[in-house]
Amino acid sequence: MKSNIKLLIIAMATLSMGVMTGCKRGDDFFISPNNPSKVTPALLLTAIEVSTYNSYEGMLVKNASVLVQQNAGVDGQMLPINNYLLAENEFDNQWGQNYQALFSCKQLQDQFGAANPYYSGIADVLAAMNWGIVSDLWGDIPFSEALQGQDNYTAKYDGQEQVFKGIIALLDDAITKLSMNASANELLPGADDITFGGDVTLWTKTAYALKARYLNRLSNKASYSPSDILASLQKGMQSSGDDFITKHGDAATERNQWYDFQQGRANYALASQPFVDSIKLRPTDKRLTAYFNTFDTTGQVIGSPIATPSSEASDWGPYLAGGNTTGVRLISFTEAKFIEAEVKARQGDAPGAAAALNAAIKESCSTVTNGAYDGADIAIYTAANVDLSRVIYEKWIAMFGSVEPYNDYRKTGFPKLVVNPNGRLPVIPTRFPTPQAERVSNPNAPVPTLTTPVWFAQN
């Protein structure tokens, strides 16, 4: 980390400027192609990675965690989320940040991609991640016309099905480029690649894991292909050593976003009672005290009720918010095993589903507790008691800090959550609102209700 700290500081400064000045797609984060002497693929790559970390650790995921009741919104900006009040102006910067990163992905491709397939392939993977999280949460989005020009604020909205096809195409393109010989590149990524240090084998595994994720999104659709998902998993992550983990430094601009939020806005979001109580059903599960700190007055992890939020609950613990430099898993072997379990449960392969589910639980327990607990005493599913509901329930517990549980809930209806009776909607919101700036500036922007399911969640 120390060797690329200067690049990280530059990237974070660039990112911060874009986030503070508004939501315009790319205006501030985008590094001008009219000044090529100031731009290198290394600088662009670092900036894109930092921005992607921010999106996958930032408010998008925290909001989703409240909606899926892993956390409870207790105060400040998180309390309205808890009550299903998602204000459109609260999402301007988050939407804009992803498009800013996508503009930089395009710039890297346009200026340096032809001569540097490794940089281009990595940019494909990062673009897929940014397109993915935006479409997951908003459904139809500007896609095919979105990056045609910085002043193109009338880009059409493409259907989520088309966006997902584009994501898969990006990942296939990445896999092809990353398989090329190193001699095909004029420049090779190294310390500027703060995720994997230029290891294209790990980027390839990430691309396959992401491909499995987005192919699995189609489980409600006729195009769903279990064999394609399993084939991608076989070439994807094979251990926790392959995981995509964010990297952070000690400076204020480099901090882990969960820790930084907790330090600056203590008690805004705390452990939820449904989540804590679910983990407590198995008292030996040590993930509970990795996810959350014990509450001072009781020595226990306490969850806040959803209907009556309470500040007398536990805050985030060492797994997500251990300190400035704590890394967060964005794509992981744990997730891959849960995807395998889901696919096999849908296929009716109960023994295979149970084996994959037990492996996923044990992998989660080991990584969450940093090896202190292997989960063998709770990973005891058999063909007789495994089904889709159990797979998604266990994934909900295991993937704290990820947007995936919210995606799974909307797609499957699991776990069975009790709607907040004091919420402003009769159901948990099934999408995020169209950001205000996008609605105002783009006449093509749709304004669906918060209860209109996104395409992948429609049966």
From TrEMBL:
Can the keyword Electron transport be found in this entry's annotation? no
Annotated InterPro entries = SusD-like_2 (IPR041662), TPR-like_helical_dom_sf (IPR011990)
Tell me any Pfam family this protein matches.
Answer: SusD-like_2
PROSITE patterns for the chain: PROKAR_LIPOPROTEIN
Q: Which organism is it from?
A: Taibaiella chishuiensis
* Span of the signal peptide: 1-21
Recorded protein name is SusD-like starch-binding protein associating with outer membrane
Q: What keyword terms does UniProt attach to this protein?
A: Signal
Which top-level group of life is the source organism from? Bacteria
Q: Write down the SUPFAM superfamilies for this protein, in alphabetical order.
A: TPR-like
